[in-house]
Amino acid sequence: MEQIHDSGKNCLSILSTKEYNELYSNSNSLNFEAGELIVKKGSPVNNIYFLKSGIVELSLDQAPKNQILSLLFNGEFIGINCVFSTAQYRFSARALTKCSIELLDKETFTKLLKENGAFSMAFIQYISWVNEGFLNWQMKLKEKNSAGALAFLICEFQKNFDSNSFEIPLTRQEIARIIGFSKESVLKNLADFRKEGLVDSNGKSITIIDASRLEEIAKYG
């Protein structure tokens, strides 16, 4: 079965050892604390940011309401859909948790795309997946009530951690801001999920008990 290149990490795995070393010989490692700005909207696209660990929030960063575009997890490129289409980033990227970033040289990356056809095809597939993810995130959250939006976010974390038990490294206020509802609605819906036997929670730790029902709320709520 053909591999689906649905992460930046999968794309990089296409490179030969020589190509991988060439790319990383021209890179720099950066660390960001939670809350730090990684990319500012309007800044020039000079490098390629690869998220090695942590969670990053992409937003339009405009008053009066900072619209969240998506969350990125480890193994993804940050703002990759701007790298070859515009001279400036069209959104901001901020670390939601402590993040480790590899700053890749754009010229070296472009050279490898030209020289390695399999890498180019994987990258095209990945860009398509990223763009579809943006649309899905926006459309799904806009259509949902508060319970559906919270269930959707919990399911997103479940998919990315590949486990029914995980820790959401966000405060209830941050969760509320991301899904576009009040902190009170997050607390109420989380209490309802516990009461209905959908999840168990203790602080930031979440265990999904009834995944099918939670996914149904995420889909139809």
In a few lines, what is going on in this structure?
This is CRP-like cAMP-binding protein. This protein is of the alpha+beta class.
Write up what this structure looks like:
InterPro entries: cNMP-bd_dom, cNMP-bd_dom_sf, Env_Response_Regulators, HTH_CRP, RmlC-like_jellyroll, WH-like_DNA-bd_sf, WH_DNA-bd_sf. The protein is an alpha+beta fold and 221 residues long. The protein folds into 2 domains: 8-137, Jelly Rolls (Sandwich); 144-220, Arc Repressor Mutant, subunit A, CATH 1.10.10. 46% of the residues lie in helices and 23% in strands. It has 9 helices and 11 strands. It has a 4-stranded antiparallel beta sheet with strand order 1-8-3-6. Helix 4 (106-115) packs across helix 5 (117-143). The model is unreliable at 1-6 (pLDDT under 50).
At the fold tier of CATH, the topology name of the largest domain is: Jelly Rolls
How big is the Rg? 18 Å
Proportion of strand residues:
15-25%
Number of helices: 9
Shape: elongated
Strand order of the biggest β-sheet: 1-8-3-6
Q: Which CATH top level class of the largest domain fits? A: Mainly Beta
Percent of residues in helices: 40-55%
* Main sheet specs: 4 strands, antiparallel
Indicate the low-confidence ranges by residue numbers.
1-6
State the CATH superfamily name of the largest domain.
Answer: Jelly Rolls
Q: Would you report the number of β strands?
A: 11
GO cellular component, one term: cytosol
Pfam families: cNMP_binding, HTH_Crp_2
Protein name: CRP-like cAMP-binding protein
InterPro entries: cNMP-bd_dom (IPR000595), cNMP-bd_dom_sf (IPR018490), Env_Response_Regulators (IPR050397), HTH_CRP (IPR012318), RmlC-like_jellyroll (IPR014710), WH-like_DNA-bd_sf (IPR036388), WH_DNA-bd_sf (IPR036390)
